[in-house]
Specification:
Number of strands: 0
Radius of gyration: 33 Å
Helix content: 55-70%
Strand content: under 5%
Order of helices and strands: HHHHHHHHHHHHHHHHHHHHH
């Protein structure tokens, strides 16, 4: 979820800038000026019946509601009142804001009403806190709401045209009758501007934010190219760009879901080791010993003349991976009980702004995934220096860097980091990947900009990127599905959620281990018999 700034906070920021706003007229400064401790503009002045109500030169007031109701625009608890769209638009003109900041505020006003009232059935003085509604949405619900949020661009454009023609001084209008405030936008380009701002969630940011300023500069530059194209080029470009933004957002959301599911599976594994780690270690030891004994016997059968030394030499190389797995299991089992943090021991994300935290996690994940994607990896500066053998294992090594580390586990339920990957853990994973590639510190995050100096070049770039994104989404969905349907994790979760069965599971572990041990003795006896034919006795290890 993108960082969200409430409309009331935005309005306050703009009001505070009144005295320093170079566009404010002398007449405005004379009427609304700070006197001692009295503010130049107060919340009450948004009401039409206030003695110093905000108004234009022709006497038209900014607000259309009474003072008591206008003050409730800033109440984000139970008593909030949603400001009319026209009031927000008139306020923006009164404060001489440009088109893009005005549109962001209008969309924010309509979004708060849509999301709280239409989507969540919020009503004033009904026991629900509006702030909780606006900030408590999960990413899935938010995406669904944004998909259904469709303010009519033609309605907003007509409103702005009417208000600008009525309240913008004639001296600021161009000689050909055009209105600079609208910056040459036609109904079709304005409609897409509205959609683009919503898709990029720019109406969530503060109006004075760097993100909105960056978006404004980019749109102005792109618009200059767009107006030079044909109507068909404009239509196709708008469609492809809309797909591009939507695909990027969908991919980022899936990547975050993957990492959070990976963390959830790791929690299950930790709980499993606490409950059954001792029994599992004993079974794995017996399993590996059985496999070792079986291989020794089969090698002797296939090579009657081999000595025990010949057999052990052959097995030494093959058994390394199994021993490493057993070593990791022992370490993880030993650590598991000590990873459970007590409330207050570590904040676990408490106090962090969840929206900002998720945004930063998505930024790091986007960098990681661009490095991991095979097609993009081939163009990495370091790729050409790897041998064919290294390239075969490179993807596996890079993916292993995303493994959950012990310090990311153990946060109690209710803590932010219990349910999602830690930002620090993701940053560490990025660092490990950059180290493997031998090119640390390279900025792999591309800007949300469309490449190309001409409209046809931009269209070509968009089509190519959209194909790549579609492939990445399919792969990401398959990866997420595999994590969700992991049979081992699912089976462990079912067992863990039924404590009454734990005794039976431990008994099964012990019985299976005992069977393996008995089979091992049989295999050793058979091998000894074969070795005795060469007058050699096999018992290389002390009795278990």
């Amino acid at each position: 979820m993108t960082l969200y700034t409430k409309l009331g906070d935005d309005l306050d920021t703009i009001v505070k800038s009144f005295a320093t706003n170079p566009a404010v007229t002398e007449r405005q400064k004379q009427i609304w000026r700070q006197a001692g401790k009295k503010k130049a503009i107060t919340h009450g002045m948004f009401g039409y019946d206030h003695e110093k109500a905000l108004a234009f030169d022709d006497g038209t007031t900014v607000g259309s509601t009474k003072t008591n109701n206008a003050r409730r625009f800033w109440d984000y608890a139970e008593g909030h009142a949603f400001p009319p769209t026209e009031d927000v638009a008139r306020f923006c003109l009164f404060m001489h804001l440009d088109l893009y900041r005005t549109l962001a505020l209008i969309l924010k006003a309509e979004w708060e009403r849509f999301f709280a009232h239409d989507m969540n059935d919020w009503k004033a003085n009904n026991g629900a806190n509006l702030t909780d509604i606006l900030f408590g949405a999960d990413p899935h619900s938010l995406r669904g709401a944004l998909a259904g949020f469709e303010p009519q661009g033609d309605r907003l454009l007509a409103l702005l045209k009417e208000l600008v023609s009525r309240h913008t001084p004639f001296s600021t209008q161009s000689a050909n009758g055009g209105i600079p405030f609208l910056e040459g936008h036609t109904p079709s380009t304005f409609e897409f501007l509205v959609k683009e701002m919503i898709m990029g969630r720019y109406h969530f940011y503060a109006t004075e934010s760097a993100e909105l300023a960056h978006f404004t500069a980019h749109v102005r530059k792109e618009f200059a190219l767009l107006v030079e194209g044909t109507g068909e080029q404009q239509r196709v470009f708008s469609l492809e760009k809309a797909r591009w933004v939507a695909l990027r957002q969908e991919l980022e959301d899936i990547y975050l879901l993957i990492e959070n599911q990976r963390l959830k599976n790791a929690h299950t594994q930790r709980e499993w080791l606490i409950a059954f780690g001792k029994e599992q270690i004993a079974y794995v030891e017996a399993f590996l010993d059985h496999a070792r004994s079986d291989k020794r016997l089969n090698l002797k059968r296939a090579n009657p003349g081999w000595t025990l030394q010949d057999i052990e030499q052959r097995l030494e190389e093959e058994e390394m991976e199994g021993q490493l797995e057993l070593s990791r299991l022992r370490t993880d089992t030993a650590l598991a009980p000590h990873l459970m943090r007590r409330p207050g021991e570590d904040n676990g994300g408490e106090g962090a702004d969840p929206t900002r935290y998720i945004k930063e996690c998505k930024t790091v994940l986007r960098k990681i995934r661009r490095l991991l994607h095979p097609d993009r990896l081939m163009h990495h500066p370091s790729y050409k220096h790897f041998t064919d053998g290294q390239r075969e294992r490179l993807q596996e090594l890079l993916l292993s860097a995303l493994d959950i580390r012990p310090d990311e586990l153990g946060y109690p339920e209710g803590y932010l980091l219990h349910d999602m990957r830690s930002l620090e853990g993701l940053k560490n994973a990025l660092s490990r990947i950059e180290t493997i590639l031998g090119n640390p510190g390279v900025d792999t995050d591309e800007r949300l900009m469309i490449e190309g100096e001409t409209l046809p070049r931009k269209l070509e770039w968009l089509r190519r990127e959209n194909r790549i994104l579609e492939d990445e989404i399919l792969a990401a969905k398959a990866e997420l599905q595999a994590l969700l349907e992991d049979e081992d994790t699912t089976e462990k979760r079912v067992i863990l959620d039924n404590p009454a069965d734990h005794g039976r599971i431990k008994a099964t572990f012990r019985a299976d281990t005992q069977k393996k041990r008995q089979e091992i003795e049989r295999l050793k006896a058979e091998l000894n018999a074969l070795l005795n034919r060469n007058r050699r006795t096999y018992d290389p290890e002390p009795p278990l």
